[in-house]
Amino acid sequence: MLANLFWAGNIVLGRGVVGMVPPVALAYIRWTGAFVIGLGFAWPYLKRDWPVLLRQWPLMLLLSATGIASYNTMSYIGLTETTALNVLLLQSAMPLVILLWAYALFRDRPGLAQSAGVLVSLAGVATIAGQGSLEVLMHLSVNPGDVWVLTAMVIYGIYAAMFRHRPKVHPMSFLVATMGLGSCMILPFFLWERSTGATITSDWHAFTALAYIAVFPSFIAYLFFNRGIELIGAARAGQSMHLMPVFGSVLAVLFLGERFHLYHAAGIALIATGIVLASLRRRPALGAP
Questions:
Q1: What is the Cα–Cα distance from 74 to 76, expressed in whole angstroms?
Q2: What pTM value is reported for the model?
């Protein structure tokens, strides 16, 4: 739950700093900052676990590329051409993407309750997206920014599905290693972006946003979400992403002055019902490591 709260804040801020921080720079500073912060906490474990991580370097590269570098960079690029609300709503399809990847890679089949939960939650997302009107929902437009975000989601689904096979090391070791590798992968694109003349605006709003993004949706949220996957499996953890439009709507009301409507309440109720359904245990749990 907290991971999704922090991620919702990341999307709102990511949209808010458009024009102040270029998208690739935002991704690079986010993960470089999170790596520096996390290294101090993870160093004792990282020294012990380094041989294991090195032996499984192909998997580490895959997880870093899909869960850190590609997903976040592409999402920030998308935010330059679409709204934060659009991204929040699109992100809510992530549980379905994870289910599809879990089936494609491992032939995992969701249980009846889990499938029903995804469908009910998606109905809640559609209610919010369409403002309670089927006509509005049918006329929603997809722009290039939405395509960037959808592509990023498909890539992230690989990370979530493959997470069960991550190296058996301390969570801090794994997290800091993937952040460091992801930062290195983004670096060439960051240097290219700078060569085009894109620079960060010297504004305290931008630096405050960068500090928040480096700490909460990066280091802390990934640590929480990774632990969630370990405890309940990728599919059930992914289902929690339906909370992002809920938190995003609340943040928009509190900080952007947007109004709360009845369709928001109906959508939130459906999303909550879907999460409860998908959280019903079955044996074996889908996506469990």
A1: 5
A2: 0.81
- How many angstroms separate the CA atoms of 263 and 85, rounded? 15
Total of domains in the chain: 1
Residue given tokens 């999307």 in the structure block: 11
Residues 6+ apart with CB under 8 A from 112: none
Judge whether 287 lies within some domain.
no
d(CA 203, CA 212) in angstroms, rounded, equals 15
Token pair, residue 1, equals 């739950």
Question: Above 80 in pLDDT, residue 151?
Answer: yes
Q: Tell me how far apart the alpha carbons of residues 123 and 117 are, in angstroms, rounded to a whole number.
A: 10
What is the per-residue pLDDT across 231-244, written as a single tens digit (0 to 9) for each?
Answer: 888 777 877 877 88
136 located within any domain: yes
Higher pLDDT, 253 or 256: 253
Asked whether residue 203 is domain-assigned, the answer is yes
Task: Find out whether 4 and 244 touch, Cβ atoms under 8 Å.
Answer: yes
Find out whether 157 and 97 touch, Cβ atoms under 8 Å: yes
Report the C-alpha gap between 162 and 158 in whole angstroms.
6
**Residue 195 neighbours by CB under 8 Å, 6+ apart:** none
The answer to whether residues 91 and 149 touch, using CB atoms and an 8 Å cutoff, is: yes
255 has pLDDT over 80:
no
Return the structure tokens found at 233: 């499996």
Mean of per-residue pLDDT scores for the chain: 84
- pLDDT tens for each residue of 75-87: 999 989 887 777 7
